[in-house]
Design a protein that fits this description.
mainly alpha, 27 helices, 9 strands, 6% strand
Length: 695
């Protein structure tokens, strides 16, 4: 039974307008490799599919529980691992589309499915007879002569049940189930509120004066956004390309402030206010952790991660914060001095000034702008470049596949190994739309496994929000966006190359604070001349990216590095502040946030703005008490990439060692995997040195 199966709720009688025989979510796909039938899936299929899948899942659990034979690893642990296949199939499609193409109808379905999932989860994890069989096998673990991945699966299974309340009293199990159901609905509500609030804002500009300072590509993007809405002028919204482009280049300080306040007040003080949702989520998470015997939610979440406990997280954060704070303050002070030197008249620049003056100072120091670089990063060329890098390092190949997709913007590719063996399907969804949440991410429509001797290969998805092409200009992305693309492609490679028989331990199913290593390490290639020179060419002239610009890209890598480092630590500190609480939040949530972040403030705090109400990573995205893992993985990646730097960034021997790490998924302890690859344990100093915070 995979991790994704343990998400959810109950038996509710639903109208089954679709039978199992004609529901494309339940029948075997006739497409190559069993690819999802996106051209046939309709919203009306989801509720009947979930109902049928949960029913099948319960029957599979009952078969394990009622097996008259004595509990064994095979008839209990392995049987449980493979149970719920139909649930996983429906969930993987539904929830990924809920992130990438969330219509109102899909969101309504999610609210109906949530209690069903919670009940089903409880049916499994609070099943006394099932747990008795698991305990019986676990008690014999030292005499079973299991293979390493089998031993780890047994340990994982027992701990999962223990951590999901299997050892609780009947009354406490009921209470735990209630907490889980409420949390499931609240996290969905948080996500729904954030998306609605984000989409509610738009800033339509109609005069040239309002566009002062904006480069052509930002104007073109805004003009296209307005045209898409049937409006005249230039439309800016809170999607990443629109927001960041305006904040970086607009000469209109009043409009920058307007946009900043809108972005940093999402789902706060409007009809989609998330503050009460946050209060309830934090309180319920603590109550759940306390019920299970943990000091706080952070200790509960980190127990099975590399870092092991919340105190270690705080120690790690402080090891990275203390050396960086003085340099971050000096970087901001220097930016203030620069701003005043070119005409800023205030005492201190404000947050809505930061990107604007940072870009101008960067231009002054390195004489390099996004507008100058973007023509060399045509999206199609960048796609070819990441595929080529994967081929150079790992010998794998990508070719377009003629298969159905869930949106016209999506492209799908067949991935094969050096010998032509099929590895995965790769779905790429690059452009923003109202139904897609902001940001960038990798996910899967199907994971890898080997069941009954038959290997199932994964369907991987990479989703971003890059600038759409216009009638006159192809999609051109910034160097930062290309770096993001490499990041998410690193996750994708983790999924594509993953091997193993047990679905809960393949691909990206690893310790939460290990999962970002494959993505973080890939970002390093974005700054290497040897790589950039293989593909970065001007989309109009075909001229290669000049060596002078590549030198500047490399030189500017650590521009304001301490500031941005502190910004990430802010998110980690805020996350931990919420999840090390042992009592409800008293007073206003915004005051709690401001107090939590005092030790990291290097820019003026805006009293009316807050991060928390749109902090989807920790309130609806699975990173609760885990945001520190981005920095943890940066440490691993900085130390790990130094081996490529030593041996050569295209060195196949080093790549083969790293591929082995990627293939293992969660079947081996990550600390062991990392030591096998690098030869030693990582140190925080590796990252601080890479960022030039320390010598």
């Amino acid at each position: 039974m995979t991790r994704k199966l343990i998400t959810g709720v109950i038996s509710v009688t639903l109208l089954t307008a679709c039978t199992m025989h004609n529901n494309p979510l339940l029948t075997e796909s006739p497409l190559p490799y069993g690819a999802p039938q996106f051209d046939k899936i309709e919203n009306r299929h989801y509720l009947p599919a979930f109902e049928q899948a949960f029913s099948e899942g319960k029957k599979e659990i009952d078969a394990i529980v009622n097996n008259p034979d004595a509990p064994t690893f095979s008839n209990t642990i392995e049987a449980l691992e493979y149970a719920g296949g139909a649930v996983n199939k429906v969930e993987n499609i539904f929830y990924n589309l809920l992130e990438a193409d969330a219509t109102d109808e899909l969101q309504d379905i999610a609210e109906k499915v949530s209690p069903m999932e919670t009940e089903f989860s409880m049916y499994v994890t609070l099943n006394d007879k099932l747990f008795e069989r698991i305990k019986a096998v676990y008690s014999q673990r030292d005499t079973l002569n299991l293979a390493p991945d089998q031993a780890k699966l047994l340990e994982n299974t027992y701990k999962m049940f223990e951590r999901r309340g299997a050892n609780l009293s009947p009354d406490d199990k009921k209470l735990y189930s209630e907490y889980e159901e409420k949390l499931s609905l609240l996290t969905l509500q948080f996500q729904k509120n954030q998306l609605a609030s984000t989409n509610n804002f738009q800033m339509l500009l109609t005069t040239e004066q309002e566009l002062a300072g904006l480069p052509g590509y930002v104007r073109d993007m805004a003009a296209q956004a307005a045209a898409d809405k049937g409006q005249e002028g230039w439309l800016f919204n809170l999607s990443a390309p629109s927001y960041s482009g305006f904040m970086k280049f607009s000469d209109r300080r009043d409009l920058r402030e307007k946009l900043y306040r809108a972005y940093n007040r999402r789902a706060f003080g409007d009809e989609w206010d998330n503050t009460e949702v946050i209060r309830q989520i934090v309180d319920l998470r603590y109550k759940e952790a306390a019920l299970l015997g943990y000091k706080d939610y952070a200790d509960y979440k980190t127990e099975l991660r590399m870092i092991k406990n919340g105190d270690a997280v705080w120690k790690f954060i402080e090891e990275l914060r203390a050396p960086a704070m003085p340099k971050a303050k000096e970087e901001v002070a220097q930016l203030n001095r620069y701003a005043k030197s070119i005409g800023f008249e205030g005492d201190r620049i404000q947050p809505w000034d930061f990107s604007y003056y940072a870009e101008k100072q960067r231009m002054a120091k390195y004489d390099m702008s996004d507008e100058e670089l973007k023509p060399y990063f045509r999206l199609e060329d960048c796609i070819d470049a990441i595929f080529s890098l994967a081929h150079t390092l790992y010998g794998i190949s990508f070719k377009p596949a003629n298969l159905p997709v869930y949106h016209p913007d999506v492209k799908v590719y067949e991935v094969t190994d050096t010998d032509g063996t099929f590895l995965a399907l790769f779905y790429a969804d690059f452009f923003p739309r109202d139904t897609k949440r902001s940001g960038a991410w990798m996910t899967e429509f199907r994971g890898a496994k080997i069941e009954n001797g038959v290997e199932q290969r994964p369907f991987i998805s990479l989703v971003t929000n890059f600038t759409k092409p216009t009638p006159d200009t192809p999609s051109l992305i910034t160097h930062d966006e290309f770096t993001t693309m490499l990041h998410e492609f690193g996750h994708s490679l983790h999924g594509i190359l993953g091997k193993g028989r047990y679905p809960s331990m393949t691909g990206t199913n690893v310790d939460h604070d290990f999962v970002e290593l494959p993505s973080q390490i890939m970002e390093n290639w974005a700054y290497e001349k040897e790589y950039l020179s293989t593909f970065a060419r001007h989309y109009q002239t075909g001229d290669p990216l000049p060596d002078s610009l590549i030198t500047k890209i490399k030189a500017s890598k650590n521009y304001l590095s301490a500031y941005y480092h502190m910004r990430q630590l802010q998110f980690g500190i805020l996350d931990m502040s919420y999840h090390t609480r042992t009592a409800p939040i008293e007073g206003e949530v915004i005051k709690f946030e401001k107090e939590a972040l005092k030790s990291t403030d290097v820019m003026p705090s805006v009293p009316e703005c807050m991060i928390s109400t749109s902090f989807s990573h920790i309130f609806s995205g699975g990173y609760a008490a885990g945001y520190y893992s981005y920095k943890w993985s940066e440490v691993l990646a900085a130390d790990g990439f130094s081996l490529f730097e030593e041996k050569g960034i295209f060195d196949r021997e080093t790549a083969a060692k790293f591929r082995h790490l990627l293939e293992q998924g969660g079947s081996v302890d990550p600390a062991v995997l990392y030591r096998d690859f690098r030869g030693h344990d990582p140190e925080p100093a590796a990252l601080l040195k890479q960022l030039e915070i320390i010598d």
